Amino acid sequence: MTDRGTWSVEKGLIATVLELLPNATYRVELESREQVLAHAAAATAKNFVRVRPGDRVRVELSAHDRTRGRIVKLLKSRGSA
What we know:
Number of helices: 1
Order of helices and strands: EEEHEE
Number of domains: 1
Largest sheet: 5 strands, mixed, barrel
Strand order of the largest sheet: 1-2-3-5-4
CATH class: Mainly Beta
CATH superfamily: Nucleic acid-binding proteins
């Protein structure tokens, strides 16, 4: 059950959400200034985590297409309690 399919093992890529797109897709910018399209992972979507522009998230990139990824965790922003 731990087979991750086509997703890379690169965990911990931190990104900032730039804009919300249709079909629960987001444009995010990695710390390396690259922009990728990402969707919410199953656990994130199932738990109704609200992702907004400006939020910092952890992203996993696809091994086949480095311009696609999925959001695996919403990180706490520095200003929140």
